[in-house]
Specification:
The complex is a heterodimer of chains A (about 475) and B (about 750). Chain A has about 475 residues and is of the alpha+beta class. Chain A has 20 helices and 18 strands. In chain A, strand 16 and strand 17 form a beta hairpin. Chain B is α+β, with helices and mostly antiparallel strands and about 750 residues long. In chain B, about 30% of the residues lie in helices and about 25% in strands. An eight-stranded mixed β-sheet of chain B has the order 3-5-1-12-9-10-11-20. The two termini of chain B are about 50 Å apart.
Chain lengths: ~475, ~750
């Protein structure tokens, strides 16, 4: 297919197979070798680049892993590699990096410069916690990240002189965070000739790709030169909405769209603290709700949350919609109730009533950017210790993402007490069937799930739980 | 203000060239290696027909195609480049597919038909030992008489200690590119050992070494993982190039790199420690079972360093240490920062920790009273000169107010039910030098060009440790010129022959020293010339800030003018120097000697917090006093220390290399093998450079820094264990690393750990 986009400060057009990933395009076709391949699975961030899209009169930039980004996502957009940040002097981020000796071998460095620059572009107020969070998706094996954190500290101190009313982009240009050609990008984009026609020859299997963050890891070779069609992710205002006492997510809603939307945080105030543990910023910019569901991983993080919210999945085939509870969607390991040519269109969950509380627990080897050993979500509706309703999900303990049905049913309609909890816990072992694998032994997962369920109740009933039972 | 490091300016702009960033010749082919799918077996059939018919394939190379010797073993010749009749580990190269693209080569490799009669695989070093599957005869170091000493001891404590492997996770994977020259071959390799690549390539290709030129640009991280293990891939690209006549590139994917290459050696060890009631250690007996993997690689040297560091920084009068290098069916394990030292130090620290519980004495008290003192001898015979063990330990306790920290933790733990804190102290000692004495040599070639700019070639490979900057600093100091005049060339075997690996923390020591000699050679000539020009004695000539002058005299020559005069006077503006570290030796019949030029000392205090419901933990602080010597570049040295500490903590906590019973690495991606990330890094890391460092034999009294701070990470293990005991006094402590959240939770609730 023909793709046109703005690469750093120039408009480019190239003919590529549409399953090509951006990393290969920028390194091989444009010889921009500052962007590195470190793992091709979104775990190291050495390939990070910015994708800017023009909307409502301004550019919005996202940091992504170019090793997992199908090139259709750059059509009509602005791609910024580390070379695109270079100016006659070092950029502000580069300069603080050098002064703090935050780079050693240098292989991870361009990706981190990109991630930090993206943080400065996308936020108006800065703090160290969020700045660190912006590089969770970037590994440095040399520095142990200590000098990188030092460089972040001195960088942020250097960014406290924005004058009132100063336009953000102009401020960042004045501070040398980005070159001034960024101002010309909307014009360059408007002049691109976009053709959406795919002229690829289809041989072999065809793939439907949403964010691509998982399928490009798992089926890298199969996707190479395969026919790929895409579900576009639009902006969150269209993707997340409330209608008739239900909250809807289109399948293409990305995790970061959820984090940026006020809808979810008004329902679950802590949602962003939970979702920070979902992948990295780069991954969350691409990973979608639909992808998280159809990947059908037993430890899918967002699926765990949706299960506890009693979500329904809306399926579409030939314009015909079918609706099933999410907990019934999963049939067996990586098998789910989806017929040929049927797609997940959206998911919804009933808006909670009063006295609603939610908790999410995840334990993995490393806290950030890691896959859970066990995760679990709990949604409870409770008044005066009386449990009107509770749903607890459990991931990593069965071939599918699970709702602990017996446990939830047993607890529903009871006054909370230690005794009730202990009795309900007895059913957990019967409901789960963890296996020993790289995420932990079966015995560990059993113990961990029970401890995490206790954590739910410690949060819901901090004063009512006698800690000795734990 | 410290000079900017020009390497870093290129790094941040994305302008540094790593191997895969170089433009390639237009007819370049790509290689993909077909490897053993089982850990142990006899090759019954290897059919290439379908693979050869695959799109884009140019050639498939097997052992039969090798004209020279099919042998890449460095210390012991026990490792074929390509398997012939048997395979010994999953990932052992069998055939090389050379095709137009990486993708086509890989697709073709999938069509190779292989039949293997599977044999039982060994993954556990103790089982290998029982079956007498050893890489070499056991090594035994001893002094005093442990058997007599036990009778004198008030307490004798025994135990077992296990430490896991560790994947290097250099961000740049293994890579090489080869092309033919008129009558030879040039190999660009991402290696720490250009000469090893040259030697082995010449052996396999049957070329004399002078026809094999090896060049190294820079490494995207090494950490020991490219000391011996880069060779196979470099030789595969060279062999493919030689047999096809075309340039050939090979870049390992992350997955293949983790799956196929060796790691830090897992160790399983037994100890017996005897102490007097006052805490003095009288005797220590230890047996190490090193998991060497399928062939020797660097295991013998790694094993030896474990023996050297058996007593960490303590003086123990009676020691007996026995070490077995056990042959298993895993990829050959290899060098990794610390090189066997950390494994041994984890054992003695575990022994002291366990003994402290038995005696009822604080661990740090036992540590302190046993620290090695000036003029004490380590048990292999080396006398300690300039021991800073106690100085660092006492300074750390005082500066960081250890007692106060402990009281705060006690108070916290009394009030907190499910969050517990723990603290641990560790003194460290690390011997500096290659223990293979002959490797302690280096060369430096310095050229001054007629415009006054300077190019320096040494045997050192830049891999992030800052050796290029340090060498530039040495030359800038000797010539007293602007450091920006000095450029460090790529490491190349045609400019610097017979290079020792860039390893053992010694690259700046050796190459700094030899560059000093080379620069001084030229300075001597320039001084003679300047004396003639300024009409004074040679001894009166001074070089300062690019001005050459005689004190008190008005006449001066600037740097560029002097260089141009020298050129016209036909004075050599180049020098090739050689340096060999004096005074080191080791007798391998008595296992006694003076293997190290000097020792590096320091002490760390690490504090952790654990969540007893979730089994998770946070390393809260790392507080260090370290003897850096007179640091050449404090920012580089601090960065080395911080990076090493985090790798050490990673090894003890998160980093879990897991093999199946059949020898398959299950942690073969970065989504299953987790290294410390920015959030795991403690908020509070303090590193004090010990004041008034003593003389060292390294360049300008600096000290090697690459490896020693790795050892501090070991304290993370004990700080977590100590916190766990605050929650549950009855924990049966297992000295088994890494201490993953899984092992923490299971132990907290008295379940056995796998």
């Amino acid at each position: 297919m023909n793709i046109s986009f703005v690469l750093n400060d120039k408009s480019v057009t190239t003919f590529q197979n549409n399953s090509t990933v951006l990393l290969d395009l920028i390194r091989n076709e444009y010889n921009l070798t500052g962007t590195k391949e470190g793992c091709r699975e979104g775990d190291c961030g050495a390939c990070s680049v910015l994708i800017g899209s023009y909307k409502d009169g301004k550019m919005i930039y996202d940091c992504i892993n170019s090793c997992l980004l199908p090139i259709n996502a750059v059509i009509g957009n602005h791609v910024v590699t580390v070379e695109g940040l270079n100016q006659s002097e070092l950029s502000l981020v580069q300069s603080h990096y050098v002064d703090n000796y935050a780079s050693q071998c240098g292989f991870c460095t361009p990706g981190i410069i990109i991630s930090i620059t993206n943080y400065l572009l996308g936020n108006y107020k800065y703090n160290l916690r969020d700045a660190k969070d912006s590089i969770v998706g970037n590994l440095c094996r040399c520095t142990g990240h200590v000098s990188i954190i030092e460089s972040l500290k001195s960088l942020l101190e250097d960014l406290n002189d924005k004058s009132d009313g100063e336009e953000h982009l102009s401020y960042l240009i004045r501070k040398r965070v980005i070159p001034d050609y960024f101002l010309r990008i909307p014009e360059l984009i408007s002049k691109l000739t976009i053709s959406n026609e795919s002229t690829d020859e289809i041989n072999g299997k065809s793939f439907l790709v949403s964010g691509g963050t998982d399928i490009y890891v798992q089926k890298q070779d199969e996707l190479y030169q395969a026919a790929v069609s895409f579900i576009d992710s639009n902006d969150y205002e269209e993707n997340i909405y409330i209608s008739e006492d239900k909250c809807f997510f289109k399948a293409s809603t990305t995790i970061n769209q959820i984090m940026n939307s006020n809808i979810m945080s008004s329902i679950i105030p802590d949602i962003n603290n939970y979702l920070r543990l979902f992948g990295s910023n780069q991954i969350r910019n691409r990973a979608t709700v639909g992808g998280n569901i159809v990947n059908a991983s037993p430890i899918a993080d967002f699926t765990s949350i949706l299960l506890a919210l009693n979500a329904e999945v809306h399926l579409l085939k030939n314009k015909k919609e079918r609706k099933i509870p999410l907990k019934d969607f999963f049939i067996a390991h990586k098998k789910f109730d989806l017929s040929e040519n049927e797609i997940v269109e959206k998911v919804s969950f009933p808006l909670p009533e009063k006295n609603f509380f939610f908790n999410y627990e995840k334990v993995s080897k490393r806290e950030y950017l890691d896959i859970a050993s066990v995760n679990t979500s709990a949604m409870i509706i409770v008044s005066e210790n009386f449990i009107d309703h509770i749903t607890v999900s459990a991931g990593g303990v069965a071939p599918i993402p699970l709702v602990l049905r017996k446990f939830s049913e047993f607890m529903t309609g009871k006054y909370f007490s230690d005794d009730i909890l202990i009795r309900a816990m007895n059913s957990v072992d019967e409901e789960i069937s963890p296996i020993s694998d790289i995420r932990g032994s079966a015995e560990y997962k059993r113990l961990l799930l029970k401890k995490l369920i206790q954590c739910h109740f410690l949060k819901f009933f901090p004063d009512k739980i006698e800690t000795e039972i734990l | 203000m410290m000079e900017k490091n020009y390497e870093l300016i290129r790094h941040v702009k994305g302008e540094s060239k790593f191997l895969d960033d170089l433009p390639v010749l237009s007819n370049t082919l790509n290689a993909y290696v077909f490897t053993a799918p089982v850990a142990h077996g006899i090759i019954k059939k290897l059919a290439l027909k379908y693979a050869l018919e695959s799109k884009g394939v140019f050639k498939i190379i097997t052992a039969k195609d090798i004209k020279g010797e099919n042998q890449i073993g460095g210390i012991i010749p026990d490792e074929p480049l390509l398997a012939e009749d048997k395979v010994h580990f999953i990932g052992q190269p069998i055939a090389v597919v050379v095709a137009n693209s990486k993708y086509e080569a890989k697709q073709a490799a999938k069509k190779i038909q292989l039949e293997v009669e599977e044999l039982p695989a060994i993954t556990d070093p103790r089982i290998a030992y029982q079956q007498n599957s050893l890489i070499m005869p056991p090594k035994i170091f001893e002094s005093g008489n442990v058997n007599d000493a036990w009778k004198e001891c008030d307490f004798i404590v025994e135990g077992r200690v296990d430490s896991g492997g560790q994947e290097h996770v250099y961000l740049e994977t293994q890579a090489s590119y080869s092309f033919l020259k008129e009558d030879g071959i040039k190999i660009i390799s991402s290696t720490q050992s250009p000469t090893a690549v040259q030697r082995i390539a010449s052996r396999v290709l049957d070329f004399p070494m002078n026809k094999v030129e090896v060049e190294v640009l820079r490494l995207g991280g090494g950490f020991g993982g490219k000391e011996d293990q880069a060779t196979a891939w470099a030789v595969i690209s060279a062999l493919s190039c030689h047999l096809t006549g075309r340039p050939v590139k090979i870049i390992l994917s992350r997955h293949d790199d983790i799956l196929w290459t060796g790691k830090r050696h897992p160790y399983s060890s037994d100890f017996k420690i005897g102490l007097k009631i006052d805490g003095r250690i009288l005797a220590f007996e230890v047996t190490y079972y090193q998991n060497a993997g399928a062939s020797a690689d660097l295991s013998p040297a790694v094993l030896e360093r474990s023996l050297f560091h058996a007593t960490n920084s303590y003086y123990i009068p009676n020691v007996r240490a026995v070490a077995y290098s056990c042959k298993t069916n895993l990829p050959p394990n290899t060098a990794f920062r610390g090189f066997g030292g950390p494994q041994a130090i984890f054992v003695i620290e575990s022994a002291i920790h366990k003994a402290s519980k038995v005696i009822g004495m604080r661990t740090e008290k036992i540590q302190e009273i046993n620290l090695i003192k000036e003029a004490d001898h380590f048990y292999y015979g080396q006398k300690v000169i300039n021991s800073n063990a106690s100085r660092c330990f006492i300074r750390a306790k005082e500066k960081y107010q250890l007692e106060k920290l402990q009281n705060e933790i006690n108070n916290f733990n009394q009030q907190s039910k499910f969050i517990k804190k723990g603290i641990a102290v560790i003194p460290i000692c690390f011997g500096i030098s290659f223990t293979s004495t002959f490797l302690n040599q280096a060369s430096s070639l310095v050229h001054i060009y007629t415009d006054g700019s300077i190019g320096i070639s040494t045997t050192a490979v830049e891999m992030g440790q800052g050796v290029n900057m340090k060498i530039r600093q040495v030359a800038a100091k000797v010539f007293s010129v602007d450091i920006n005049r000095i450029r460090i060339e790529y490491t190349n075997t045609s400019r610097n022959a017979n290079t020792s690996p860039t390893a053992a923390s010694s690259a700046a020591d050796l190459n700094g020293k030899v560059t000093l000699i080379a620069c001084n050679n030229i300075v001597e000539r320039l001084k003679e010339l300047a004396a003639k020009e300024l009409k004074c004695e040679k001894s009166e000539i001074q070089f300062k800030d690019e001005i050459i002058f005689k004190e008190g005299s008005k006449k001066k020559i600037n740097w560029i003018d002097l260089i141009q005069i020298a050129y016209r006077e036909r004075i050599s503006l180049s020098s090739l120097a050689h340096y060999a570290t004096p005074g080191i030796y080791f007798d391998r019949t008595s296992n006694k000697g003076n293997p190290f030029t000097y020792y590096s000392f320091g002490t760390a205090i690490i504090q952790s917090q654990i969540d007893c419901l979730r089994g998770t933990y946070k390393i809260e602080s790392v507080k260090v006093v370290h003897d850096f010597g007179k640091s050449l570049n404090s920012k580089i040295d601090k960065g080395q220390a911080e990076g090493a500490i985090m790798q050490g903590i990673g090894w003890m906590t998160l980093e879990d290399v897991v093999y199946s019973e059949k020898g398959k690495n299950l942690s073969d991606t970065l989504s299953t093998y987790k290294v410390p990330d920015v959030m795991f890094t403690p908020e509070d890391i303090q590193i004090e450079f010990m004041e008034n460092p003593s003389e060292s034999l390294a360049i300008f009294n600096s000290k090697a820094i690459g490896e020693p701070p790795f050892l501090y990470g070991i304290a993370a293990f004990f700080s977590i264990i100590n916190a766990m005991q605050e929650f549950n006094q009855d924990i049966k402590i297992e000295y088994k690393a890494p201490l993953t959240p899984e092992r923490v939770l299971l132990q907290l609730y008295n379940k056995s750990i796998s």
